[in-house]
Each structure stands twice: as C-alpha cells, then as structure tokens.
Amino acid sequence: MRFRHPDGSTVHLAYCTNVHPAETLDGVLAQLRDHCEPVRRRLGRDRLGIGLWLAKDAAHALITDPVALRGLRAELDRRGLEVVTLNGFPYEGFGAEEVKYRVYRPDWTEPARLEHTTDLAHLLAALLPDDVTEGTISTLPIAWRTSFDAAAAETARAALATLAERLDALEELTGKSIRIGLEPEPGCTVETTADAIGPLTTLAAPRIGICVDTCHLATSFEDPATALDALTAAGVTIPKAQLSAALHAEHPHLPEVREALAAFAEPRFLHQTRTSTSAGLRGTDDLDEALTGAVLPDGAPWRAHFHVPLHAPPAPPLTSTLSVLQDALTRLVGGPEPLTRHLEVETYTWQALPPESRPRNRTQLAHGIAAELTLARDLLVDLGLKELP
Q1: Alpha helix locations (H) across 104-149?
Q2: Residue 280 β-bridge partners
Q3: Contact present, 191 and 184 (Cβ < 8 Å)
Q4: Interval 80-94: pLDDT, tens
Q5: Beta strand 134-139 with 318-320: parallel, antiparallel or unpaired?
Q6: How much of the chain exceeds pLDDT 90, in percent?
Q7: In a 10 Å sphere around its CB, with 0-12 CB exposed, 13-18 middle and 19+ buried, how is residue 312 labelled?
Q8: Are strands 134-139 and 81-87 parallel, antiparallel or unpaired?
Q9: Which residues contact 35 (CB under 8 A, 6 or more apart)?
Q10: Percentage of residues of the chain with pLDDT beyond 70
Q11: Which residues touch 258 (CB under 8 Å, ≥6 apart)?
C-alpha cells in the first residue's frame, strides 16, 4: 500500500511475512499464494506491500539461481504484491516449535550474518518495483547482551562497516539504494534507541540506521517523542519502522492480572518483560520468569514483548500499547517531512496467542492481518497522508 505524504514523497505500508513460517523458496511461493494474495483481495486493493522474510535456505536458493529470482519477481507481480523492505532479523528456524534465544544467532560478530545480509541486499535490489529505487532491511541489534565484550563490539563494527561498503558498490552497480536498520530489542546489546546512538555515530555509515519497532519501544518504556528526537539530533537515520503493540499490565500485583498474563507465557518465542522503577528499567528475559521468579517489582505497570494484534487488544485486565504506536507514528510521518518512508506491520505471534484468540484457519488469519492493515491505513490518513491506488 502506498501513500502520498503532504511533502510529495511516497510512504510505503506493508505487512511482514514472518507470520507465515517458510524456510525454503517453495515455502515462500506458497505464502504468496495462500496468504499474501488473499489478504490483498480482502482489502480490495490491486497492489499490496509485503515485508518479505527470506530464511537462509530460501535466500541461498535465490542468490544462486537467477532464473528462480526472476520467477519470484514474476510471481509477486502476478499476485499484485510488491516488496520494498525485507525482514532480515531471523536467520532460520523462525517457525520452529521453540525459537527463544535462537533468533539472535548468528549475530553481527559472526561472518554468516554479514554474508546473509549482503545476499538479502542483492535480492532486494532485484525485487524492488521498477518505479522504486530505495529498499530497506531490518536486522538484529548487533547481538544478544551476554558474552559481548569490547572485542566483540569491534568485530561487529567492522562487519557493519564492510556491509556499508558493499551497499555503496551495489548502488553503483544497480542504481538501487539499500539501507539497513538495526532493530533495538529488549535484552540485546542495543536494547533502546538511546543505546544505538553511540555505535551508529561511531560507525558513521549513513546507509545503516535504526528500525524503530513500536512494540520494543513500548516494552522498554521509551517515550516516542524523546527517542525519535534524540535520533534526529544525533543524525541517526530511520530506514524503516515496524508497527506493533506490546502487552501491557497496569496492575501486575493483582492475582487476576497475573492469571491473565500467564495465558501469554508460551514456549515458542521470548517475551522479555520490563517495568520502569525509580532506579531505572528492570526486567526479565521471559514472561514466565516475571510471573514465577519473584524478581520483577510489581508496584508499577509491566510490559511484555509480545506482539499483540493492532486492532484487537487483549481482554481486560490487560491491554496493549497501541497508544505508543500512535504517538510514534505521528512523529515518524506526521511532520512536514517523514522520518521514514517504509512502514511494516509486524505481528508474527498470531499462533502464539492464547488458544481462544488464535485464528483457526487461513481465512481467519487473512481477516486479522487485513484488519491490522486497515487500522494502520486509517491512522496514516488521519495524519494527512493520501492513499494511492
């Protein structure tokens, strides 16, 4: 979906396909047929943007076979789909029964991360629509925080510098500008937008900036205006933003609230949980630790890294952080010029919701994704953007 910003530029809205597990190229093609095109049809649009997730094996199949790559591009066109952004955070196994800490490997200290992201950049340059010259890729925020020292930080910095050089060369070769966004996430070496400013200003590579995920922003209790103003003041770019909402518990000390939260403590994904105290941010690596470990103060609200559907907050006594998304979006695209032109709805946890809230079939999932995109579209229109055909 495309929108015209009041300044005349085009803002793209997509939804991320990491909600549909697929490790192979055949799986990606099935996603387009079984999920993405039905969402487009449900929205009544001739064209729908998707934030494509290409796992290691799918990316390798495409980068080594130009015919397959042309076939994917043709399939996107045939089904009324377009790609201007990729989700390069998960490397493989995102559809496994247990993902948890595995999603952070390989990190930016490992050669495989650099090579995979380089491949994604080349693939995105080939998949961009003919009238689009800029693509974006989100990636993990350097590494998970444990076992990360000064030597690891230098290794990661060198890898990102090499990536920036490769992206420069790619633009010279193709005329396509590909930019990368480190995606701050609780528990990582770059947990907040503030954590990103030092490494990125030291790197001094304009092609590498921040992917603002509004669920992560909310989980870390960051104020959107403060965070985004600080990035702008530091000269850190925002190649893309992911529109997502976290799980919010206003009164976590109450037994009924803890019971409601327990329904979201599931074995597949990591749900980092945070609370803001007078001594600063406190947290646990997972929601079940917060509920059973007696290590997280419960005198103030808790937020958990659980991407809840934008249009369907959990039932009371819980809610979502949709208001944080709205505040961030106002700052991102509601000003005289957009801070980013690539927006991606990223609710990958549909099948991790409590059983009564999960979609039971493809039709229900398509309905939910379309409803999220409709909400995002309405927010953009309210900010003065005009939806394009």
Answers
A1: 111-127
A2: 277
A3: yes
A4: 999 999 999 999 999
A5: unpaired
A6: 98
A7: middle
A8: parallel
A9: 17, 20, 362, 365, 366, 369
A10: 100
A11: 252, 291
